[in-house]
């Protein structure tokens, strides 16, 4: 099973993808992390693997040049991830489990609130228990049915992992 992770900030993408790959429970359950920096790359991967994708994690604010005729809906790139999901993922597979990991969740709720469903969560990047990486891990736990992933990741680092 595959997790598609789309984030255009390369340092954040590499760090987050590596952290997710370090979670033994995800590896043991057969999850493979596939990270992409550009919408066109993620779209191609999704098109080729959609039956094997268990979860999509995406940023919102990204380069919108690969949205084609839908580019104008991206609000200058601030909602690129949402437009990609709406037109290239949810049109064919509306129940695809998705975590939007972005500093622009408020804008998403204002402009495209209909995208937030039981299958789609928006986690704010930032600091705090329900934000940032901790919030992302909690959302992954909920979507994929795990418990204590964050605790186990923290223990791994405390034990020199």
Question: If you had to describe this structure to a student in words, what would you say it looks like?
Answer:
- The protein has 161 residues and is of the alpha/beta class.
- Helix content is 42%, strand content 16%.
- The chain contains seven helices and five strands; from the N terminus they run E-H-H-E-H-E-H-E-H-E-H-H.
- The chain has helices at residues 10-21, 24-28, 39-49, 80-89, 105-111, 132-144, 149-158, and strands spanning 2-6, 32-36, 53-58, 98-102, 120-124.
- Strands 2-1-3-4-5 form a five-stranded parallel sheet, with helices on both faces.
- Helix 4 (80-89) links the parallel strand 3 (53-58) and strand 4.
- The longest helix has 13 residues, at 132-144.
Tags for this entry?
161 residues; globular; 7 helices; 42% helix; five-stranded parallel sheet; alpha/beta; Rossmann fold
Which helices and strands, and how do they pair?
Elements: E1 2-6, H1 10-21, H2 24-28, E2 32-36, H3 39-49, E3 53-58, H4 80-89, E4 98-102, H5 105-111, E5 120-124, H6 132-144, H7 149-158
Parallel strand pairs: 1-2, 1-3, 3-4, 4-5
